[in-house]
Amino acid sequence: MRPCAARFSRVPAAPNLPEQPLNRYVIVGGEPELALLLHLFPEGVEELDGAFAVYADQPPIGFDLIETDEVREGWEDAWREFHHGVEIGRLWVGPPWESPPVGPIPVVIDPGRAFGTGAHPTTRLCLELLQAVEPTSLLDVGSGSGVLSIAAAKLGFTPVTAVDLDDVAAETTRSNAAANGVEIDVTDELPRAGLAVMNIALEVVEGMLPKLPVVRAITSGYLDRDEPHVAGWQPVDRRVRDGWAADLLEFRP
Ligand SMILES: C[S@@+](CC[C@H](N)C(=O)[O-])C[C@H]1O[C@@H](n2cnc3c(N)ncnc32)[C@H](O)[C@@H]1O
User: Fold this and answer.
1) Strands 105-108, 138-141: pairing kind
2) Rounded CA gap, 6 and 179, in Å?
3) Is residue 66's pLDDT more than 70?
4) Strand partners, 247
5) What's the CA-to-centroid distance between 225 and ligand 1, angstroms?
6) Which of 49, 148, 193, 236 has the fewest CB atoms within 10 Å, i.e. the most exposed one?
7) How far apart are CA 81 and CA 85, in angstroms?
8) In whole angstroms, how far apart are CA 110 and each of 41, 83, 186, 242?
9) Does the CB atom of residue 33 touch ligand 1 within 6 A?
10) In testing the pocket of ligand 1, which one of 93, 107, 115, 145 has its CB within 8 Å of the most ligand atoms?
11) Distance of alpha carbon 66 from alpha carbon 184, whole angstroms
12) DSSP code of 14?
């Protein structure tokens, strides 16, 4: 088994253990399958030699499944064992039960039920691009766990505003911000900002971009073969990883 940053598709915190037995499904595949699995299981996919494993109640449809194991005993410990922090440029993003290494700026994310442990390629790419621009005011649309907002605040972006249509995500952003000692305004408003970051799906990015009161945006949530097409918005920088892409865009009408 090869070590990998993102592991499990679910977060089995003790009070939230699934009622149905949880299974580990082993799937044969390469990069295209991994890209699809990460899309379906954004909290993580376990990487094996020439195969992947995901944890779910039901088998993922349309994949070449070679093994199914029921997971019961020691599920929480196993999950923690596989969920490790990752270094992304000047940042370390990891769970509270792991000690941050000396040097990088720690972004401690308790992986609750909101997306965004930091390990997904799209999150990592957004974190790379946030480090490639001058800090300014930031609007994080689709904050999930709050990982991008918290990292941005620690990198000097201020003020940082986070928006998410999912109440669980908004609450998770608030609690993770408090745990990291940073100030994030979690709201339903879309205030004017120097930069927006939006790691959602391509169609949401294209639909939201014209409505945001910003002239620069980091966008992701789509594959390398895709790119946002929105009138007036031009690509300035692009990063790719594991078949996913993120763009820095500027509004130049
Ligand atoms: C892929 S997660 C990204 C989480 C985190 N920003 C990251 O980069 O890891 C996308 C988040 O966007 C939220 N979302 C989806 N559509 C949205 C919309 N139209 N407005 C605001 N949030 C949205 C989802 O609830 C989810 O939390």
Assistant:
1) unpaired
2) 22
3) yes
4) 219, 238
5) 21
6) 49
7) 11
8) 17, 11, 17, 24
9) no
10) 115
11) 45
12) G
